[in-house]
Amino acid sequence: MERIVSSKIFRRFLISYLIILIIPMVAGFISYQVSIDTAEKYSIINSKQVLNQSKRILEQNLDEMDRFVLQLSLDKDLNSILNKNASEKNNIVSLLRQLDNKISPYATTNEFVEDFYIYSKNSDLIIIPGSVYYRPYHFYENNYYVDMSLSDWEEMILNNKRQIIPSRPYMHDDTPTNVITYIQPLPMNDVSNHKGSIIIPIENQKLNNLIKEVEKQFNGWAFILDENHQLITSNGIDKTEIDALKERVINKEGPLYVNNETLLITETSEKNDWLYVAGIPQKTLIQEAAPIKYITWTVTGITFVIGIVIALFFAYRNSRPINNVIKTLKEYAEPDSKNDYDFLHGNISKLISTNTDLQMQLTEQKPLIKDAFLKQLLSGEITERTTNLHEFAKQANVSLSSNHGYVAIIKVEGYEDMSSSEIYQELHAIRIVIQQESMKICDKFYVTNIHSDKLVYIFLEQEVGKAFKEKIENMFTSLQSLLQEEYRVLLKIGLGHPFHSLSGISRSYNEAKQAIDFANFSYEKKGMYWYDNVMKETAVFHYPLEYEFRLLKSLKEGDFIEAEEITYELLDENIEKRSLSVDMHEQFIYELKGTFYKALDQYIFRNDNTGEVIRQKLRVITIEESMEQIERRLIEVIQLYCAFVNENRKETNHSIVKTIEDYILQHYSNAELTIYMIAEHLSRPEKYISQIFKEETGEYLYEYLEKVRMEEAMRLLTNSSKTINDIAELVGYNSAHSFRRAFKRIHNMTPNQFRKTIE
Fold this sequence. Notes:
With about 750 residues, the protein is an alpha+beta fold. Among the domains are: about 400-535, 2-Layer Sandwich (Alpha-Beta Plaits), CATH 3.30.70.270; about 545-640; about 650-755, Homeodomain-like (Arc Repressor Mutant, subunit A, Orthogonal Bundle), CATH 1.10.10. Helix content is about 60%, strand content about 15%. Helix 15 links the parallel strand 16 (about 490-495) and strand 17. The longest helix has about 70 residues, at about 10-75. The radius of gyration is 36 Å and the shape is globular. About 25% of the residues are buried.
């Protein structure tokens, strides 16, 4: 054996096999590089999603502040106070009391506006929820900017134009903090006639809470710059470092690296041109590739070791006969393969174990899919008109055999201002207990959580009547008593109107939220609050952002029924159920018209007369008209809009089908022609063009391609003397055999038989 191993022939065989073994090593290196690039790509995507989510939440809060300021500026009591002189201070006590009753709830329901105050220039008053300062400097003694004198404060804050002032050090009741300042002069419609201001100091910590997820999830940092590139807030990075990075992030698009160690990701707000910047350490980007790296190099190493054993074996086996001819082999011993078998056996067991772990991980994902499906139901993203609705429901393990029921929200009392890992664990345990005890009483519901201290119940039933309502009430009553007696946990429950369609779930959920919001101000320690029975706020109109998003979505999709239903819901809530003032009524109609104007910004309306017709119909809608006239005009606008969208979509579909047919007629002879190639030509997804073609023509795309090829084949068989092989190649088949088989399947005869019938 030693003589064979040392022979030249053996070495040549071995070198050949070792050269082949270089391939898996190269493949391992390429796989490793791909894994690093893929991990970085998805980490960038995840970090951009986190940054976008923070931006979206902050913009929503700013929108809520704008709406709050707009509604407050229209208040008659406030405008009366603004018009009073300093000599009339003692005569406006009743007005101040009425105004305080209106503004106090805002300070407790929205953390961004909890420290707001109103300055009346003529009467020289500072008004805050629950109190009034008859001298501004009295208010300034307890609430002042560290780097700003009293006169500077009066000039830059009380009497300044509308703006948001970047972060400044601030003292609030002897507590140092940093705030950004939102300033809105009054009245809003007359800048030259300044009568006062609404000022909202917002603590930096509240903004930091929105961007701290970048530090928590990616061990990175984040900061926000305003439209003038002044620092709004930051998390995980100091101002000196931010100043050094400003030039690199301003006017830069896409991610870039700093010192090859930190990835900078920027997002610019379309609303106010604020710049959101996040820095992600490179080690965080590649840590997701660590398992792939380990598996890649492990498999590559194993492959290399096995390859060497096999190379030695085959080199030995193939060189042995030749060496036997030249020399006499005196000793021969087979290589010991027992260890190799044990090695393979161990790795196969490891692969089986890994596969089992993957199956367990997939099983663990099912509750997350179910939870996401329920949240989409609550937000109104899923309705009866959703494509493949029941397939989605089946994947989420949700039965939609009924579309009637109620939505309820359970709130665990006593945890509003508490946050720690122990509190979260305790709340998690309480939620589990609530769900388990609920299942013992009633099993016709689905449940998900919206906050750590809130659970949302969706009850589904074939018929919603008094008996089912009493059953729900009895269930929650029993649940409240059980949790209080055995666990000393107090629950408050808010319930909405019954829904009779899947699209009504979102409406019932919003009503339950309003009921639970009312419960938060109730002095009762526990209770059950039906939406119909609670005291609803009638001073402001009802138009949540989710309703606007749903209306825009239904208009964009041309869904007339959904858009009409949402409009009726909003009109019923604001006109029939609320006692709105004339100003609020007008503002509601203005906001609703604004939504339709937003929908008209789509590119398909920009060069079409239909858009101008719709705008004209919107312009003539005024508060002076009766409610029936306003409702009729809105429905006409929806009909025109949806009809145009559907017609435009139909024309687009016709154009796409014509393009597909022309492309097939030009390229049917290409044997490599596939649906993927057609989709690439149209720059559309394969599933999309297949579905459009089937809807427009009634036949599948591959059937049409085969029909075109067969028609051309019949023409060639009839009018030419070409062979079957030539015809098969000309009409796009890889072989004559596959052509004959397809021809016989369609025409029930072979090509030769068809040619004979023609002859």
